[in-house]
Design brief:
The protein is mainly β. Helices cover about 0% and strands about 50% of the residues. It has one domain: Immunoglobulin-like (Sandwich), CATH 2.60.40. The radius of gyration is 16 Å and the shape is globular.
């Protein structure tokens, strides 16, 4: 059985651009311990700065350009993981023990599957994360999820998230980990 949700991201009010009309995210958590997210950006794609495709690899500072992100936290713990998914196919995983305390993880076994589709008015990025690569607890635990996007466009940057809780965009603020995903049943 798979739990599935469509969620609207909100643009931080101080960073609005004309290039992006909306960002929605489809979230699926499967009984096979996979978390799949599909980011759907609607707007004028010709004005969005999209990194050129490369072979899948670990990247650095992906959030400095158009990038989609997922924060995964086991309910009740301060530790969390941050995944960065670039439209180029690059990715990065950070393991953080608490708010912004941690480092990138250079472990190819954590590589998410990333696929990109684009038209003149829509950009979609699919990312698949295998929860067992984070810990043996993640597949069975209630998870707090934060979803966000940094969009670089010809008219500036915009910052999108499930919830903004500060005067400036801060995707690491645990208040933004607003989606609770229980483990799906293995039946059905």
């Amino acid at each position: 059985m798979t739990a599935e949700y469509w969620i609207d991201l909100k643009c931080h009010p101080w960073t609005r651009t004309e290039s992006v009309r909306a960002i929605q995210v489809l979230v699926r958590r499967s009984a096979s311990a996979e978390l799949q997210v599909t980011f759907r950006l609607d707007g004028d794609i010709s004005r969005i700065k999209i990194p050129a495709p490369v072979a899948p690899r670990i990247g650095t500072e992906l959030w400095r350009h158009t990038c989609f992100e997922a924060f995964i936290n086991v309910e009740g713990q301060t530790a969390y993981h941050e995944f960065n998914f670039a439209p180029s196919g690059e990715w990065c995983v950070y393991a953080l023990s608490s708010y912004r305390r941690g480092a990138p993880v250079a472990d190819e076994s954590m590589r998410p599957d990333i696929a990109l589709r684009s038209t003149g008015s829509r950009l979609e990025l699919d990312a698949l994360v295998r929860l067992e690569t984070l810990s043996s607890n993640h597949p069975r635990a209630d998870l707090r999820i934060g979803l966000s996007a940094v969009i670089e466009a010809s008219d500036g940057f915009s910052y999108w998230a499930l919830r903004h809780s500060a005067n400036k965009p801060d995707f690491h603020n645990a208040d933004g980990f607003a989606l609770l995903l229980e483990p799906p049943s293995r039946e059905g």
